[in-house]
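User: structure tokens for this one?
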Amino acid sequence: MGKEVQINHVMASSTETDLTALTTNQKVILKVLVDADGEALRGMEVRRQARENYGVEMSRSAMNGARREGTAYPKHMVDETFYDTNEGDVDYRHATHRLKPEYIDTVREQLQ
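Assistant:
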């Protein structure tokens, strides 16, 4: 079993964002996070719920692309924590995503 170490915590400044203008993948990520009601979810859980609850298949690279710098994805609304784990000789990188409580109502109003 690997050792989990927090290596990064991303927070950006807030800005006004029109969530209806986001891509489908970006909207679905936020919808899954608002459904979690402020709880942190691992990326694989976000992708599973996107598929099961919203019918959107999203690979790991598609999710990363949706959140990439330079896109309209509102990083200021989401806490992302990255973890490195080591299982045997293999290193893995995981992330948890949590919609900040102050943005839950905004996301619900604009996307649901």
